[in-house]
Design a protein that fits this description.
By secondary structure, this protein is mainly alpha-helical. Among the domains are: about 80 residues; about 180 residues, Muramoyl-pentapeptide Carboxypeptidase, domain 2 (2-Layer Sandwich), CATH 3.30.1380. Helices cover about 60% and strands about 5% of the residues. The protein contains 9 helices and 6 strands. Helix 1 runs antiparallel to helix 2. It is rod-shaped and about 175 Å long. About 5% of the residues have low confidence. The structure holds zinc ion (ZN). Zinc ion (ZN) binds next to strand 4.
Length: about 375
């Protein structure tokens, strides 16, 4: 059920409303002008009268129209048909919806604009922070590198100090070591007649063959000598010292004895070489209780065999082995050269006098280690 008059009426109302608003606006503007004119005329006695009249006429027109439309709209309001009511409600809802949508759209636009601005700002800030971070990382890296290089330098320095300290230590020990102790003796190189070892000590009687005689040895050799004899005795090998340190004078006397005993042959061995080693205080002649002074038969003893197999472990070597190119074989005569050199000689199957003096000198520092 439709009332064909309603759309027409609405269109009419709309048109009139637009007209009315236009007229009202126009009249309003004119009134302002008119007021200005009144102001002007009061100031100048002769204002633009025609403007005032025009505004007045428009005012009348406006009132008339307003009266007319007010009346029509009121009439509709008083007696609306259900369709009209529904249409109004719907129109109202549509208007509300449009309003809400417009408002929402506007808010959305605003928010979006704001968020885009914020995004741009934040992106800028992030870029800035990233730049800073990069700079800090760079700085950090170069600091780390500097630290590392400092540490390297320190390590190198420490190494150098250690090396230097080591060198000093070696030199110190070398200075304190008697160079004669590992010297080779020959017909052309003797030990000075005034040479006396720095530290001599008495060998305990339990290790000495003749109970009424005192034997002396270099104090730093003594510990190894005791170990050697004790270990041999533990292995069932009886071993004693029959002769150790001998002074130059004692030596000269002995040489005389040997010379008497062996005649000119004495020069070959006892003379100036073999016995000069005893003057060092690092050399011993061994015997056994069974052999006693008859130690020339020492070669055939178990003690000799044991010594050839073990003496090097205690730093002792046989000075004049069988068939050596220098002096007669002295199986009883053992010289202390330190464990390092003794082990090397044993490993290489060489004898002390086979080595070059320069090679021997390298072991001087380790002699009493
Ligand atoms: Zn000897």
């Amino acid at each position: 059920m439709e009332n064909p008059a309603i759309p027409a009426l609405y269109i009419g109302v709309a048109k009139t409303a637009i007209d009315e608003m236009a007229v009202f606006l126009f009249a309003f503007l004119l009134a302002i002008f008119a007021d200005l004119g009144v102001l002007n005329s009061s100031l100048h006695a002769r204002g633009p009268r025609h403007m005032k009249i025009f505004a007045h006429k428009l005012e009348i027109l406006f009132h008339t129209r307003r009266h007319y439309y007010t009346h029509s709209i009121l009439e509709i309001h008083m007696n609306p048909s259900p369709v009209q009511r529904t249409t109004w409600i719907l129109s109202g809802l549509v208007l509300l919806l449009i309003g809400a949508l417009s408002y929402g759209g506007y808010r959305y636009y605003e928010l979006r604009k704001h968020s885009l601005e914020m995004k741009a700002i934040l992106e800028g800030r992030i870029a800035e922070l990233e730049g800073n971070l990069g700079m800090v990382s760079e700085e950090n890296r170069s600091l780390s590198e500097a630290l590392y290089s400092e540490q390297q330098k320190n390590a190198l320095f420490e190494e150098e100090i250690k090396e230097l300290a080591g060198t000093v230590d070696v030199l110190d020990r070398l200075a304190k070591t008697d160079p004669e102790l590992l010297q080779k003796y020959s017909k052309v190189y003797f030990l000075n007649e005034h040479y006396i070892p720095s530290n001599l000590r008495k060998i305990d009687q339990e290790f000495v063959y003749k109970q009424n005689e005192e034997e002396y040895i270099h104090s730093k050799v003594y510990a190894d000598l005791k170990r050697l004899i004790n270990d041999a005795r533990e292995d069932g090998i009886e071993l004693s010292v029959i002769s150790a340190y001998r002074s130059f004078d004692e030596q000269a006397q002995l040489k005389g004895t040997y010379s008497v005993t062996y005649g000119n042959g004495a020069n070959t061995f006892s003379a100036d070489q073999g016995y000069s080693e005893h003057q060092l205080g690092t050399t011993v002649d061994f015997t056994t209780k069974a052999l006693g002074t008859g130690f020339s038969a020492f070669e055939g003893s178990d003690a000799y065999t044991w010594l050839t197999e073990n003496a090097y472990k205690y730093g002792f070597v046989l000075s004049y082995p069988k068939g050596n190119a220098y002096y007669v074989f002295e199986p009883w005569h053992w010289r202390y050269v330190g464990e390092e050199l003794a082990r090397k000689l044993n490993r290489d199957k060489k004898y002390f006098y086979d080595l070059d003096q320069r090679e021997i000198d390298q072991y001087l520092i380790e002699l009493f280690d």
